[in-house]
Amino acid sequence: MLDDLKLIHERDSQDALGVAQKEPDQLKYNFVEGSTTWTVKPFKNIVLAGMGGSALAGSIAQSWPGFAVPFESVRDYNIPSYVSDETLFIASSYSGNTEETLSAIAEAKDKNANIVVISSGGKLTELAKQDNYPLIQLPSGLQPRYAVFYNLKALLTITDGLKITEGRAEELSSYYQFLTDATKSWLSTTPTAQNLAKQIAQECVGKSVVIYAGPKFFPAAYKWKISFNENAKQIAWCNQLPEFNHNEFLGWTKQPTNKPYTVIEIRSNLENPRTQKRFLVTAKLLSGLRPDPIVVEAVGENLIEQLLWSIALGDFVSIYTALLNGLNPTPVDMIEKFKQELA
Question: For the whole prediction, is pTM greater than 0.90?
Fold first, then answer.
């Protein structure tokens, strides 16, 4: 079915595959220089407030490039008590109307935090202009889960501007060709026999998907979870090793005896050697007690290449899973209905 281009076009009527194919372009996007004046000062900590895909860039940045001061991503209405006038507070909402983020920025304002905004519009952009907060405005027209690389580039633009990092936004641009070349083998025109994304999708249909990774690649595992939930409309969970081995590991050994799951492991030679060994020992001891994992070995010469590759692959896998489910990957009608009910 996944090699039937006519059927793919019919089910993917809003061209989610085309959006995924263009995601590498986000890496080389240049936010308008000179539009924001940065006041460079030392910060004791960084807090990023956001939900879903808007928060994910913070998790990626904690793996690469990492920060020399404490960094926390907040997915909540409320912010940590330690936020102060020595905190860099980044409010991130693709739509600009995320109520948790709007609540969080109000609290940050009360604590005199140093506020920066990432958004494509909405109330958050209006607030940034009203209160003269530095604003990185994202290109509009996407579902937030498809704008993660824009968010990452925006975050690094901020940290470079404030001298927290140096040259990382420009470095991110340099990985455009690597990711563009990688995604070619996952396009709809590449037959299933040579298409890793299509092959994994076929193993995920009709099952709950569980994605595991080590700490450095947990942001990729979390993005796979988001993408399965929103693209395939299919339940998925994620966790990371070594924490997994201290609790969830035992959960696989007994119940339920019938395990309707697909297990996916994102592995990398860049994880701690002890974490790499944990994957092997886990597979050995759980053999026959859980489905054999689909092992995804991250591709790339360094950490950020492997992260970008892993995240992009998950987008294609989840979109193909949606098509196998007979669904249009793009709409998230139930989330929109939930927001209306909540309002």
Answer: yes
- Which residues are tagged catalytic? 230, 246, 339
Domain at 31-173: CATH architecture: 3-Layer(aba) Sandwich (3.40)
Helices (H) and strands (E) in the chain, counts: 14, 9
Task: Decide if 90 contacts 46 (C-beta within 8 A).
Answer: yes
Burial of 273 (0-12, 13-18, 19+ CB in 10 A): exposed
Structural fold of domain 5-15+176-324: Rossmann fold (3.40.50)
Model pLDDT for residues 99-133, shown as the tens digit of each residue? 999 999 999 999 999 999 999 999 999 999 999 99
Cα gap 208→179, rounded to integer Å? 28
- 5-15+176-324 matches 31-173 in fold: yes
Q: CB within 8 A of 191, min separation 6: which ones?
A: 3
Domain positions in the chain are 5-15+176-324, 31-173
Q: How far is Cα 268 from Cα 203, in angstroms, rounded to an integer?
A: 21
